[in-house]
Design goal:
Blueprint (H helix, E strand, L loop, with lengths): L2 H9 L12 H33 L3 H29 L1 H20 L4 H29 L2 H32 L4 H4 L1 H15 L14 H24 L4 H21 L15 H31 L4 H7 L1 H21 L2 H18 L8 H28 L6 H42 L8 H10 L11 H37 L16
Helix pairs in contact: 2-3, 2-5, 2-6, 2-8, 2-11, 3-4, 3-5, 3-9, 3-16, 4-5, 4-8, 5-6, 5-16, 6-12, 6-13, 6-15, 9-10, 9-16, 11-15, 11-16, 11-18, 13-15, 14-15, 14-18, 15-16, 16-17, 16-18, 17-18
Length: 528
């Protein structure tokens, strides 16, 4: 970097006592408000899904897309959003993301059908993707190198705490207000983020900003991810060997191969493949995918288990998840301190082993499992996930070349969102297949007359753990028998899904052995 550029950066250094603009800690506060919305919405909707399903008459596949559409839009657009920030400035990108996120949240609240909810959730995810890389870029510009790791740690803690608090916040809003309020709450928060951003933030952009966008790369990656997730979600309905399923899954593989080839030819590729020459970076990225696969997929089923099988209210379900959320909040700073002293490898491996144990424990839950047993596995999961979330930035960004550190930050977030989307889809497919296998036998044992025309409806109800209403004059033993058949089928599917999640978490623990502390500094920032 030339001396003149360094001088410019020094003159514009945030923290100038004459103005609050660019103040490091106020910058952290501002971006934390914006990112909090995005992280919160990743899990807050899970607690509202059962109510949304009932109110809008959504199918299991539809309700999965309320979560998967949001996560997938985030995942596909994150790296592109990082390049937009480099090109047009991180402040402007952050403000557009915050305003758009608030606007689409309001649109979801006013939606009158599940199709509209899914559409606006996808748009919400796109605006959310603008926020996260821009937030990290603004932090890199606001803090001196010796304090940057602390700032990123706090920023990561906000994400972890918001993700963990989602079920509690969602439960309170759904029970005492409405499911729409889960989205309306983002409007004032978004307006606060925009107001603080206009007042506090100082724009930062890369010195060698991208001059063009890899449009073919964006299209190929977006198409590949859409075909993959859509094929997995529809496979239980179509059949895994059905030509439609094979076309979508095969198309996803082909699009990814073409995407990888194009990245070696593009002038400014969406994801420079040179990043993956680093074994720790590659291991860390895949580890994030697997961790999110297990976590987001698991939380999706737990909310239905608590509300539909145990008959809890949304807020009671959130309270029962408190051991997990509390351990994530408490575990994050502890994990950060441990990683600072001994590096990320041991904490990440230990964390994923805890998560594996938690998933195996959850696979043993029955229809009548008590609060104490559930809380034990929730505590283990919260403690296990914290080191992975805290250590991810250091492993991935720290092992990237300096000139690609911004792209690596987007890659870390994209990996988590892709994993979450795939986890919801794949574990949902596993659950659906198991329920379809065991439900007929469970219904036969009730010895109740079942109309064959009700078969598909009962299968969909069992996938959500919802006992269908019976005629008013039905004897109570018959009502209980039907509910037991539905709930037992749901729990069988959930058990298999958590077993698969445990295997995935164990594989992630093995990948953790290849991680190490990054040696690259973030480098000086340029302010304009």
């Amino acid at each position: 970097m030339s001396q003149s550029v360094l001088d410019t950066a020094q003159e514009a250094r945030p923290g100038d006592r004459r103005s609050l603009r660019g103040h490091p800690w106020l910058t952290l506060l501002t971006v934390a408000v914006g990112v909090m919305m995005v992280a919160l919405d990743g899990t807050v909707v899970a607690i509202a899904n059962p109510v949304i399903q009932t109110d809008l008459g959504a199918s299991p596949a539809d309700i999965q897309w309320v979560t998967s559409g949001y996560l997938l839009a985030l995942a596909v657009f994150l790296i592109t959003a990082g390049k937009i920030g480099d090109r047009f400035g991180h402040k402007s990108t952050f403000l557009v993301g915050a305003a758009g996120f608030a606007a689409t949240s309001a649109a979801i609240g006013f939606a009158g059908s599940i199709q509209q909810v899914i559409l606006f959730r996808v748009l919400q995810g796109l605006f959310g993707a603008l926020l996260q890389p821009a937030a990290l870029g603004l932090l890199r510009g606001a803090f001196p190198a010796e304090k940057l790791n602390m700032a990123i740690g706090i920023w990561g803690g906000v994400i972890g705490a918001s993700t963990a608090a989602g079920p509690i916040v969602g439960g309170l809003l759904v029970e005492h207000v409405s499911w729409e309020s889960v989205f309306f709450i983002n409007v004032p928060v978004g307006l606060i983020a925009v107001a603080l951003g206009l007042w506090i933030l100082k724009d930062v952009r890369a010195e060698n900003a991208a001059k063009s966008f890899d449009i073919p790369g964006i299209v190929l990656l977006s198409g590949a991810m859409f075909m993959l997730v859509w094929g997995i979600i529809k496979a239980p309905t179509w059949g895994w060997g059905d030509p439609a399923t094979l076309v979508f899954l095969g198309g996803a593989v082909l699009a990814m191969v073409v995407f990888a080839f194009w990245q070696t030819r593009a002038k400014e590729p969406l994801i420079p493949l040179s990043l993956f020459r680093s074994v720790p970076l590659s291991a860390g990225t895949l580890l994030m995918v697997l961790m999110a696969f297990a976590f987001f997929g698991g939380v999706f089923f737990v909310t239905f288990y608590l509300q539909n099988v145990h008959g809890m209210s949304p807020v009671d379900a959130g309270v029962h998840l408190l051991p997990m959320t509390a351990m994530m909040i408490v575990g994050a700073p502890i994990a950060g301190a441990a990683i600072g002293k001994i590096g990320p490898r041991i904490p990440i491996v230990a964390g994923m082993l805890f998560t594996t144990a938690a998933m195996l424990g959850m696979s043993t839950l029955e229809t009548d499992s008590g609060t104490g047993v559930m809380s034990l596995w929730f505590v283990l999961m919260g403690l296990g996930l914290s080191p992975v979330m805290v250590g991810a930035t250091e492993v991935i960004v720290g092992n990237a070349p300096l000139e690609l550190s911004g792209v690596a930050g987007g890659l870390q977030q994209a990996a988590m969102q892709v994993g979450g989307s795939l986890g919801t889809a794949v574990l949902g497919a596993v659950m659906a297949s198991k329920v379809a296998d065991v439900l007929p036998g469970n219904l036969a044992r009730t010895q109740l007359p079942i109309d064959p025309a009700q078969g598909e409806g009962l299968k969909q109800a069992a996938q959500l753990g919802i006992a269908p209403p019976m005629p008013p004059d039905t004897p109570q033993p018959a009502v209980d028998a039907m509910a037991n058949a539905i709930h037992s089928s749901f729990v069988s599917g959930m058990s298999l899904a958590f077993t698969v999640a445990a295997v995935v978490a164990l594989a992630a623990a093995g990948l953790g052995l290849f991680t190490k502390r990054g040696a690259n500094d973030a480098g000086p920032a340029v302010h304009i």
